[in-house]
Design goal:
Blueprint: H1 42-55, H2 59-69, H3 73-84, H4 87-106
Helix pairs in contact: 2-3, 2-4, 3-4
């Protein structure tokens, strides 16, 4: 009685064993440009800074700034999350506004 090892590759599909099922190639998806959207280039960052300078802050951002000035970081995060809708987005926005406060204190 001979035992044949699993080392060889089958040309057909089988219904039992480690390599059971229909053999197919992996579908490799390419990375879309949308994934790197938030970084932006120098030109888009410059445009955003100009818009921020002219337009100022949204009402909810002004309230978050007040909360951060009073050292209520957790409350600011909860409020931002409620307005923006996502935890990571809220954390990013809070960090951005904390940087604004820091720059205001240095001036």
């Amino acid at each position: 009685f001979l035992v044949i090892g699993m080392s060889h590759i089958r040309k057909y599909s089988v219904c039992v064993g480690r390599e059971k099922g229909y053999k197919k190639t992996k579908n490799v998806k390419r990375v879309k440009a949308v994934c790197s959207k938030s970084r932006g280039g120098k030109q888009s960052q410059f445009a955003r800074s100009i818009v921020r300078e002219i337009m100022g802050f949204a009402p909810y951002e002004r309230r978050v700034l007040e909360l951060l000035k009073n050292d209520r970081e957790k409350r600011a995060l909860k409020f931002t999350k409620a307005r923006i809708g996502g935890h990571r987005r809220a954390k990013r926005k809070r960090e951005e506004l904390m940087g604004v406060i820091k720059s205001m204190r240095h001036k």
